[in-house]
Amino acid sequence: MSGVSARLDGRGIVHEAGLRVDGGEFAALVGPNGCGKSTLMRTIYRALRPSAGLVTVDGDDVHRLPWRESARRTAVVAQETPAELDFTVGEVVLMGRTPYRRVPAADEERCARALDRVGLSGARERVYATLSGGEKQRALVARALVQETRLLLLDEPTSHLDVRHQLEILHLVRELGAELGMATLAVLHDLNQAAAFCDRLYVMSAGRIVAGGPPDRVLTPELISRVYGVRAVHRTQLVFERLGGGP
Ligand code: ADP
Ligand code: MG
Asked: Which domains does the chain have, with CATH numbers?
């Protein structure tokens, strides 16, 4: 995307934002609460039309594509999981096939493969609302997988999870993206985690992208203090790593 601005209720929220994510790459978007990250994401998944600028996926302006075509290019795992509806996990996953002509047998197969891939193969008939937070997020990743898109967007996919489940989701998404050559852009809260997982990091502040690049170059103490108003100090710290096993 380049030069993207967005307004809500007549107020400018995003100002001339530009970023790119290549296939197979995991990019993170970070920034203080209320700086405009979700609004920016919404212009990419077409929940909001930018007031200026261009959002392209695979070379085409997403806001000019037929709806069905843009849904074949971009999948979203949003912050708020869709209401506690009475759908089964399998039904939620199959919603990812909405932009395609349904082919029941093949779609069942896709659903089974995706559930297997996220470690939920036993949960197909369970009611989605009864899943744990981590399982819900994995089911939504499975739904995104059957959508077979070039771009996967995640808006704070780990915000309700404990640290082990946070790492699990991030590992899963990064592996899938690399394996499928899918571009992934995730809004993340934890700067250390973002730095550990992403290939490219974008920092947003007051509606603008103020830095972008490899995380070790972007996350300088100066930038952190300017954007977050805190002092960043390197100390000996606990580093959490996922133990073997699990998906
Ligand atoms: P972030 O995701 O970085 O926390 P958001 O994009 O959600 O930030 O919000 C950016 C700004 O836009 C905030 O000031 C917020 O209050 C405002 N905002 C968000 N949604 C709406 C809306 N539907 N109508 C008006 N203002 C909104
Ligand atoms: Mg947000």
From this structure: 2-82+147-228 (3.40.50.300)
